[in-house]
Amino acid sequence: MSEQPPEDETTGTDEVPVGPPTITVVTDYLTAPGTTVPEHDQIVQAYRAEKAAQRSVCRVPPDDALWPGDLYEALCRRVAANLAVRANPLGIKAGGGEFGTAVFRVGGRDAEVRRLEAPWRKRRIG
Fold first, then answer.
1. Which DSSP string corresponds to 99-120?
2. 13 in a domain, yes or no?
3. Can you give the residue range of the structural domain that contains 73?
4. Is residue 18 included in any domain, yes or no?
5. By C-alpha distance, which of 53, 115, 6, 90 is closest to 20?
6. What's the DSSP call for residue 92?
7. CB within 8 Å of 95: residues ≥ 6 apart
8. How many domains is the chain built from?
9. How many C-beta atoms surround the C-beta of residue 25 within 10 A?
């Protein structure tokens, strides 16, 4: 008896996306009720930068191969994080309060991206 792959719970099919998420998929990912979607050119620029960054630290399959869901999701999150911190290029947010000024680092490494990419990270030896 041959084993069938499990059905995808969201679509009811066993189809797996081929290749990395497209610009259209990433744009849809960034769209949430009540939010402003960045300009298309900004999304394209962030997508290209984050795709290259992901490839430099992870073992990523070719674009025409099946991509695992964790890498697919991580790339979408990378683009979202890139666009979110553009308004704060120094990555520092200062807030004044009753007891003085507090400085917070914002942006940087997304814990969820690290978790999703962990099994695919390249190991540096030496």
1. TEEEEEE-SS--HHHHHHHGGG
2. no
3. 23-120
4. no
5. 53
6. E
7. 101, 102, 104
8. 1
9. 15
For the entire predicted model, the pTM comes to 0.75
Structure tokens given for 48: 């290209």
**Would 104 be classed as within a structural domain?**
yes
Any domain includes 75: yes
pLDDT, tens digit only, all 126 positions of the chain? 444 444 444 444 445 567 899 999 999 999 877 778 899 999 999 999 999 999 999 999 999 999 999 999 999 999 998 998 887 777 777 776 667 676 666 666 788 999 999 999 998 887
**Can you tell me which residue has the tokens 């298309």?**
40
Question: Are 2 and 9 within 8 A, CB to CB?
Answer: no
* The total number of residues written for the chain in this structure: 126
